[in-house]
C-alpha cells in the first residue's frame, strides 16, 4: 500500500517532469554500460545497439601455464581443457574485489579503451545485494576509477526498460509508467523473480530459486562422469554440451519413459563426438548420419540427461533442494503483492537470462503457471524477442536508458559523493537496496 501511494498519478507526473529537466542538463561525456554478471561481463558504450564485447567474468589458469588470464586475455589461451576458474562472484555476489578490479582494468583500458575519470558509468548489481557489497562498489567506482557520474541498478530493472521499450516500439501497451511486470531472471548462480510496479521493484515480494546455469552444468558433469567419461575438470566442454543438446520437457514423466526405450525407439537418444583437443579450442559436435568419424573418436551417448538437466529449474527437489521451481516462485511472488494488481502482473511476465534459451522453456513455464493460476486470469509470457539473446537484455536496457536520457535521473555525481560520502549512494539508490 505504501508503494501504491508513492506511485500515484501525481507522483508519476512530477517524475516525468523531473526526468525532462535532468535530461536537459546532461553532458556529452560517454556513458560506459557494464552488465556485470556472474558468468559473463557485457561491456559497451551507452546508446549503441550491441555491447562491444561479452567477456568471461573470471580469471582462467590453463593446465600448462603459471599465470591467470583475465577478460579479453582468455582469447589467447591455446588449450581450454582442464582449466582452473577463479571467479570474483560466489553464490551470485561479488566477493573477490581484487579479481573483479583486475577484470574491470582490462575492460576499461584494453576493451573499451576509455579513461574512467572522463566518463560516466551505469553498472548492474545483484538482486537484493548486500549493503556492504554495494558500498564497496560505490567506493571503487568513485575513489579508484574516478567516474564523474555513476548509477547501479539490478539487472531485472535494466532488462525491464528494454523489454517495455521494445513492446512500445511494436505498438503494444509499452511505457514503464503504464505497466505492472514480473521479471524472471534465470542467471548463473540463482534464478530470481522480481515483480515491478511502474519502474519500482516490489522488494518484499522478490523470490529466489537456488538453481542457475552453474548448477545445471555441474549436475551434467556429475551425471556424465558417473555414466560415461570422467568430465569433472571439463567445465568449458560440458557447458557447451548443455547448451547444444538439452531442452525443456513439456511432460517430464512421459518423456522419461520414452528415454528408457531401446536404441531405435528412443526419440531422445543422441551421440556427441568429443573433441580431440589437437588445437586445444575445438569443441565437439552432434553426430548425424552424414558425420564422418574414425575409430579414435570418443562418442558420448546422451538420452534422458537432455531433459533431466533443465528439469531442475522446475523441480529442484529432484536433487534434494527443498524449494519449488520457477513456476512456484512466480506464484508465491505474485501472491505477496497487493491483491488488486496480482492479475495484472501475470499479463506481463518477462524472461531474461541464458538458461531461458532452452527449447520449450516458455511453453513449459506457461503450462505450469496455468495449473496454478485462476482460469479467468490471462497469462502472457514474453522473452527478449526473435534473434535477441536474453542474456543481453540488461545491457540493452541500460544502453537505451542512456540513449533516452533516463540515465541522468538515476545517476549520482562524483561531486555529490565527495560532499556527502557513501550515504549519498544509499539515499540515491534506495529503491534497489
Give a nutshell description of this structure.
With 433 residues, the chain is of the alpha+beta class. It has 16 helices and 20 strands.
Features:
six-stranded mixed beta sheet, 20 strands, about 425 residues, disordered N terminus, alpha+beta, single chain
Secondary structure layout plus pairing:
Blueprint lengths: L1 H5 L2 H16 L6 E6 L3 E6 L7 E4 L2 E3 L7 E2 L13 E3 L2 E2 L2 E2 L2 H15 L8 E6 L5 H14 L4 E6 H15 L10 E7 L4 E7 L2 E2 L5 E3 L3 H15 L7 H11 L6 H7 L11 E4 L11 E2 L12 E4 L2 H7 L14 H10 L6 H5 L2 E4 L8 H10 L10 E2 L10 H12 L2 H4 L1 E2 H7 L2 H6 L5
Parallel strand pairs: 1-9, 9-10, 11-18, 18-19
Antiparallel strand pairs: 1-2, 2-3, 4-5, 4-6, 7-8, 10-20, 11-12, 12-13, 12-14, 15-16, 15-17
Helix pairs in contact: 5-13, 6-7, 10-12
Number of strands: 20
Binned, the helix content reads 25-40%
Q: Rg from C-alpha positions?
A: 23 Å
* Straight-line N-to-C gap: 19 Å
**Mean pLDDT score, rounded?**
87
Sheet bearing the most strands, described?
A: 6 strands, mixed
**How many H/I helices?**
16
Shape call? globular
Strand order of the largest sheet: 3-2-1-9-10-20
- Beta content: 15-25%
Category from helices, strands and their pairing: alpha+beta
Q: Unreliable stretches, pLDDT < 50, 5 or more residues?
A: 1-26, 172-177
